């Protein structure tokens, strides 16, 4: 039997916000080590985001904890996902104590997989070099995955947030390896869109999530397991409100009959940026623009395959 078979796990450790192409490289290595060690693959991650504890504020998140766990299990083939509660006590642990007490005593592993910029322990004093020494002492394996580059630069969660904020959804999606998405429950609105002939589903985005730049996007919308093409506006509806209105996601589904969506959860996948949000001189001008944007969205979305918005599952 393999010498490492006495260990239960091979572990990948990190924050993994967004589970982008850099994280995918870690998961590919994790699956390789799983086969070599005949062990369970597990991911160790943190909640809340470490910066929420260390700096008092976390960056806008690319994924919720629930989405992260489901993504790892469904697409990356991970056997188990464990969330460590990130506290001030955990942040102040000496690096060696973190590795011994928090990791290996609870999750006996024959191999660890981390990214090149992984840090741990008090003030991030532990780094890849220290982890390599530790693993040699413990006689366990270690894989340190280098940075992954895209046509838009090195892939990172912060770079993806910057691309989203700039409306560069193409770059963000390429770095992610799938279309960025947001979920929410459809709210009762003022029905002005319906009176204009464009029934929309209004969603208030979660306050802790990263948002694309205000504007109009070609999108795919998932409702009750069924996927619809559509057009989505992110913004505050300046044509309707003299002053800035509530920030909303307004989704118009290209569906016959426009089903009643109030109280229903939708997932919006952002495929392409069409235009920034702007104020129109009249509601008639706004209605004509919505029609033009919808036709453009239909053309854009026709170029994508039916599963283009999803990540490619690891085998």
Number of helices in the DSSP assignment: 10
| Strand coverage percent | 25-35%
Low-pLDDT parts are 1-5
Distance between the termini: 24 Å
Helix content: 25-40%
Order of helices and strands: EHEHHEHHEHEEEHHEHEEEEEH
Which structural class do the helices and strands define? alpha/beta
Give the overall average pLDDT: 90
Q: Which shape, going by the Cα principal axes? A: elongated
Strand runs, count: 13
Gyration radius, to the nearest Å? 22 Å
Main β-sheet description: 6 strands, antiparallel
| Spatial arrangement of strands, main beta sheet | 8-13-10-11-12-9
Give a written overview of the molecule.
- 31% of the residues lie in helices and 25% in strands.
- The protein has 315 residues and is α/β, with parallel strands linked by helices.
- It is elongated and about 70 Å long.
- Residues 1-5 have low confidence and may be disordered.
Key terms for this structure?
10 helices; 5-stranded parallel beta sheet; 315 residues; alpha/beta; 6-stranded antiparallel beta sheet; 13 strands
Q: What does the secondary structure layout of this molecule look like, with pairings?
A:
Blueprint: E1 9-13, H1 21-37, E2 40-47, H2 50-54, H3 65-74, E3 80-85, H4 88-91, H5 95-104, E4 109-115, H6 128-138, E5 141-145, E6 149-150, E7 153-154, H7 157-165, H8 169-176, E8 181-185, H9 192-195, E9 201-203, E10 215-223, E11 226-235, E12 248-253, E13 265-276, H10 283-301
Parallel strand pairs: 1-2, 1-4, 2-3, 4-5
Antiparallel strand pairs: 6-7, 8-13, 9-12, 10-11, 10-13, 11-12
